[in-house]
Structures are given as structure tokens and as C-alpha cells.
């Protein structure tokens, strides 16, 4: 799992012999977006949501996410491991009832990115993967609106001061999207390889970018 830049079957009822509901997690953030519906951010349920997440992260367009070639079970296990951590979190983003993105947040001081820049108090790292556009194509303004909801969550709900993102340097589309949203480009860096029993993350050439709370939400 290398880039966490651009995801849920809703909980279903099963019978066996009694009706038992699968895990449901309440949204941590909800926001109405004019003309686009209500966007909710809720914690990912690894094994319940693995089907749709696997479909997104293994598409060729998501190559920079680093999960191409993984099975559904492997993707589920990655997120199940993340679910045990206090420093890294995964969320499914829904527009009304439809899953539209995978959001991951992390504490930079507990991540390999801390080897590449001076972490400040109040920093939070973010990775965002958008769902593929539907048959009708993308909706104008949707990506910018989704990024605004994301920044509202981390700045206003979590009360953070600065967001850091680290897209692959080759992912020009993601970099351009962040810069248009008000992020300031930082240095290009090499994120070191992580080789642990629980997870392997290859080294990555990344472009850091930062968004200050005062820029996103001027006083």
C-alpha cells in the first residue's frame, strides 16, 4: 500500500438462522453540498466494505495507490490491520447512499513521511482515492466539492492546523488537483521503504503539498 491520493457495500442483513446485522459505523462528518447531495464520511468496515474498495484500488487508474494485483482478501486484511492502529484511519465517503471515495488520514509523526519534512503540531496526513466516474461521466465541480468536505472534516471536526499530502511525483493529475484547491507545493522527496511483518510499502518518489487551515477557512 503506497499511496493513500484518489470506496462499501452498505451493511446487509444475513440469516443464519436468526437475522444478524453486520457491523455499522456511524458517520464522523456530514455536510450538504449544493446541487450534489449530502456527503458523509464514515469509518471503513474492512471486511464488509472490501468488495467495493478492492474494485477501486485495483483499477489501472489507481496504480499509484499501490494495490494493483491484490486480491479482495488481501485488501481486506490491509484495512483490518489499519483498523487496529490509533495513528492511521480509513473512511468510506458516501454521497447520499452511494460510495464515492476512500479517505485515509494519518498522524505524520507516526508515518514514514516524517523522515522527509519537519512535522508541526496540528499536522495531519491525508490520502484520497475517488471512485470511478459513472456511465454519465464526472459531474462538474464534484472533485473540488469533495476536497472541500475533506478539509472541513480535518480542520473543523478534528481541529487540525495543516494538511499534508504526498502523491506520487508521476501523478500529475492529483498534484494539479491539490494545487487548484489551495495547497502549496513542498519539496519532492523519497519516502523510504517500509518492510514489516504486518505490511510492506515500497519506496516512493513523492511530491509533498500543504494546506494551512487559515487558507482553507480564512478568519
Structure characterization notes:
The chain starts with 12 loop residues before the first strand and ends with a helix. The chain contains 5 helices and 12 strands. By secondary structure, the chain is α+β, with helices and mostly antiparallel strands.
What are its keywords?
about 220 residues, eight-stranded mixed sheet, globular, two-stranded antiparallel sheet
Distance between the termini: 37 Å
What structural class should be given to the helix and strand makeup?
Answer: alpha+beta
Q: Extract low-pLDDT stretches.
A: 1-22
| Global shape | globular
Percent of sequence in beta strands: 25-35%
Overall pLDDT confidence = 86
Oligomer: single chain
Radius of gyration: 17 Å
Number of strands: 12
Share of helix, binned = 10-25%
Summarize the structure.
This protein is an alpha+beta fold.
Write the SSE topology.
Blueprint: E1 13-15, E2 19-21, E3 29-33, E4 37-43, H1 46-57, H2 72-82, E5 88-95, E6 98-106, E7 123-130, H3 142-157, E8 162-165, H4 172-180, E9 184-191, E10 194-195, E11 200-201, E12 204-212, H5 213-216
